[in-house]
User: Fold this.
Amino acid sequence: MNMPEQGLKLDYGYLIQDGKVHSSMYTSDQVFDDEMEAIFHHGWVFVGHDSEIPNPGDYVMRQLGKQPVVMTRDQDGRVNVIRNRCAHRANMVVGYEGESKKVLVCPYHGWVYDLKGALIDVPRPDGYPDDFDKSSLSMVSASQVDSYRGFVFASLEGSGMTLAEHLGRATALIDRAVDLSPEGELDLQAGWLQHRFKANWKMLPENDCDGYHVETTHASFMQATDSQAMDLTTDAGAVEPVVRDWGNGHMEIDFNVAYRARNIPFEWFGRVPASKLPNYTAAMVKAYGEERAHDLSVTGPPHAIIFPNLFLGELNVVFYYPVSANECVQLYTPMTLKGAPEVNKRALHQTEGAVGPASFLIPEDVIIAERNQAGLSAGGQEWVDLSRGMHREYEEDGLLVSHMSDETVNRGFWRRHREEMLRPHSKA
Assistant:
């Protein structure tokens, strides 16, 4: 396929249009390289949750675009995001996750770094002159690191905006998740399971907030389970869910409006009666009062994407990292709530059934994504259509909203993508 160019640069103003996207956006190696630089190295990207590293010396390994990083908690209790590269000969300093560390030691030549990435010692120092400057040879930190309610984000090269500006109004989505804990915190300790997709990374967030595919792709799930999702989408008298564009590329399938209309506590949680969660219900009332606790029991968690790589999928936390134009990895964990063991036990089993390796949903989504990637090679048409529902979008409280089956949110995701690809980037 011919890809229009401006000089030596791709014309992303042409390749990403309202209602359609050029097929090369999913297949081109140059597009992928440009995305890694513009979105995953200069943009704000979800790294992890601070509950994963509760104690000084705790750490996890992550990938931001093409760059391996380590998220650590240092002796001062601060969370750091450091590029996983020794300043000596570029070896990865951290090669596996394990017990807490007092220092980070490169396995190649033994250079020693503290938990902030500062070089503190080298073996056989007589090989260097007296004015050898260890302070100039640190592991390099991300230019910007910040968090919101435990969710840690970083921009490796500097985004030109604050995390608050990046999240915008979508903080309300994170609030809806975290407020389900009677202590107002998540505690993600169940571990992450990975799925590898032979598909472009953008297909995952596109699909996760796509309400149009559910009845077709997940027909077996809808037929085999007594799911509230079936009632919400097929009951002619029900208030239907909507899709909501939160701006900045953040998007949601908003089941909340349907749940509010039905006003049934814990319908989102497999219709479990409140009597089965007595301790949780009591803890929520104590924490929030009866009215707010009831409201939270009705509305439940969000089903939303935080651009570019975080998915709050009901009681699951999911994120993605790209591998190549044709491959990506998805990681997920149950969204366990601090102070809510009754909910967490059930949430773990629901995660196994929804997105586990032998679950209803993920195997179907993987197959669809990989068929999608293969279909892009068929040729004959240059564009991917994303125009569904453009004629019936409406504004509500300053946000674009439409029918659950419409592609309003996908268009919002691509608008932000285009902005990032066209925006000049410089270090903060």
